[in-house]
Amino acid sequence: MDKIQTLAWRNGKLVLLDQTLLPNEICYKELSTEKEVFDAIRTMVVRGAPAIGVSAAYAMVLAAHEVDKEDFEPFIVDYEALGEHLSKSRPTAVNLNWAINRMIKCAHANKNFSVSKIREKLEQEAIAIHNEDLQINRKIGENLLSLLKRGDTVLTHCNAGALATSEYGTALSVFYLAQEKNFPLKAYANETRPRLQGARLTSFELYHAGVDVTLISDNMAAVLMSQGKVDAVIVGCDRVAANGDVANKIGTFNVSILAKHFNIPMYIATPTPTIDFDCITGESIPIEERDGEEIATINGVRIAPEGIKTYNPSFDVTPAENITAIVTEKGIAYPPFDVSLKDVFNN
Ligand code: MRU
């Protein structure tokens, strides 16, 4: 199969693979306004913290062209308002605000240029954010691989792969790196209800890349672990608090409790832009709550009574005490994370 590209910047437009249609259809959408990118993030056409961040950066390039002002002061007022709007698309992944803020900072840093020059500088900044993401993921993969043994089997939850980033992924980068280095590794993918990112996306991308991957439903992890079939858990994350608490896809907390119970290492793969030192603990991480229809239906087919009450938090917080190590592109942080995360970040 040809390599699948998650996102691209082409002729001044953002091209996104529509992930809501995977694995059944491979269909790309071309977006040319901030509002279109907002909707794509909200509806999860693009998802995964780093891919959301890169898409947001390109949305801010589109926004700069939408603002019809040629003097800096009126330009920046409207530009920041579009950034504020975009930041409301999904609340948990800090990469969204990180990318928007970096773009706004870039506009301010170039305020002495004409607005048309500022638009060019903003495009260069978004491309830089995109390229940095590529470099970061490979380095995370190398650091993860240093923690594993040949022949290990790794359980993962949700999708922190190439589909969630520019390429390679964070948690899944280790499988691609292992392939390149002829280092045997196997994967178990939790299906990840309700949006099924494990079934629809992780098993799709690993299977097509030729990685030995087995799909399980979320309630099977304990049995697998009790049978000695899991050597490590590796997941991505949407925000790391200063104390090492980690927000990731709903169900990650459950897996971390199981891993602790069975004495299996729990590794969090994270690019440093996903660390939010302003969140002192996981309690201050905003958790997105999505439409309950995601639970009451599967692929549009109703599986629960009409009118049933639902609760659908999209993410949970894994406490630092359940985490063995937080693996970044700059190095590996071990407990106590309030000290080690800063050391790694400033590396
Ligand atoms: O709701 P999603 O699909 O955007 O959630 C994605 C995750 O939880 C990922 O694990 C996380 O964003 C890291 S992606 C490298």
Descriptive tags:
11 helices, 16 strands, 347 residues, single chain, globular, 4-stranded mixed β-sheet, 40% helix, alpha/beta, 7-stranded mixed β-sheet, binds 5-S-methyl-1-O-phosphono-5-thio-D-ribulose
Give a short synopsis of this structure.
Helix content is 40%, strand content 18%. By secondary structure, the chain is α/β, with parallel strands linked by helices.
Descriptive notes:
It contains eleven helices and 16 strands. With about 350 residues, the protein is an alpha/beta fold. The protein is globular and about 65 Å long. It starts with 6 loop residues before the first strand and ends with a helix. The model has no long low-confidence stretch (mean pLDDT about 95). It binds 5-S-methyl-1-O-phosphono-5-thio-D-ribulose.
Based on CA inertia axes, which overall geometry fits? Answer: globular
Largest beta sheet, briefly?
7 strands, mixed
Annotation field: number of helices = 11
Q: Whole-number radius of gyration?
A: 20 Å
Helical amount = 25-40%
Query: What's the order of the H and E elements?
Result: EEEHHHHHEHEHEHEEEHEEHEEEEEH
The number of strands is: 16
Low-confidence residue ranges: none
Mean pLDDT comes to 97
Bound molecules: 5-S-methyl-1-O-phosphono-5-thio-D-ribulose
Which secondary structure elements does this structure contain, and how are they paired or packed?
Elements: E1 7-10, E2 13-17, E3 28-31, H1 34-42, H2 49-66, H3 72-86, H4 94-109, H5 115-145, E4 152-156, H6 173-180, E5 185-190, H7 197-208, E6 212-216, H8 221-226, E7 232-235, E8 239-241, E9 246-249, H9 252-261, E10 266-269, E11 275-276, H10 293-296, E12 297-298, E13 301-302, E14 315-318, E15 325-328, E16 331-333, H11 337-345
Parallel strand pairs: 4-5, 4-7, 5-6, 7-10, 8-11, 10-15
Antiparallel strand pairs: 1-2, 2-3, 8-9, 9-14, 12-13, 15-16
The structure holds 5-S-methyl-1-O-phosphono-5-thio-D-ribulose.
